[in-house]
Amino acid sequence: MLSRKAKYGLKAMLRLATDQPVAPMLVSDIAAEESIPKKFLEQILLELKHRGLVQSKKGKGGGYMLARDASQISMGEIIRALDGPVAPIPCVSRTAYIKCSECQDERTCGIRLVMKDVRDAMCEILDGRSLAHVVGEVALAASIPAAPAPLHAAAPAPERGVPHLSPPTPIRLRVARPKGVR
């Protein structure tokens, strides 16, 4: 699961990528715009600076900015910088591998085989999406009008052993009108 630290880091990096051609951004502005506690954001940005993902400028007109172009920074790189490996279990990690103590044969371990596929799918998505790509997706999504909410939301799938109760069917009344009146 994505930590709050990584989520806030992603939000801050997306904000910096959105405003990339402009001057550096103040921590207080990012914190206010993204609803992130300022002190926590300062720690996150400092960690991202140590990882070479952001730069800081002191003094008047100072603040934080991306260290590289937004198209050169992937979502996966940010998550790894803040949370460590993306792998769901250590025995499938490429960077922090640890053998499972209870596993007799990794080659035939069903859990490991599935979690390796999960890791590969996550890495493909996270490493394949740059900040610039996500900023573009957000801009596109914002330009499309939202669909109206349905009158009746789809009913969730029933749990085993629990009877499924569907939402009531709307009743349509026919009102008799005199002939010739529409």
Task: Sum this structure up briefly.
With 182 residues, the chain is mostly helical. The chain has one domain: Arc Repressor Mutant, subunit A, CATH 1.10.10.
Structural commentary:
The protein has 182 residues and is mainly alpha-helical. 42% of the residues lie in helices and 4% in strands. The chain has a two-stranded antiparallel ribbon. Strand 1 and strand 2 (63-66) form a beta hairpin. Helix 1 (4-18) packs antiparallel against helix 4 (75-83) and helix 2 (27-34) crosses helix 3. The protein starts with a helix and ends in a 39-residue tail after the last helix.
Q: Secondary-structure map with pairings?
A:
Blueprint: H1 4-18, H2 27-34, H3 38-50, E1 54-57, E2 63-66, H4 75-83, H5 110-128, H6 131-143
Antiparallel strand pairs: 1-2
What are the salient characteristics of this protein?
182 residues, mainly alpha
CATH topology: Arc Repressor Mutant, subunit A
Order of helices and strands: HHHEEHHH
Residue stretches low in confidence (pLDDT < 50, at least 5 long) are: none
CATH superfamily heading: Winged helix-like DNA-binding domain superfamily/Winged helix DNA-binding domain
Percent of residues in helices comes to 40-55%
Shape: globular
Q: In the CATH hierarchy, what is the architecture at level 2? A: Orthogonal Bundle
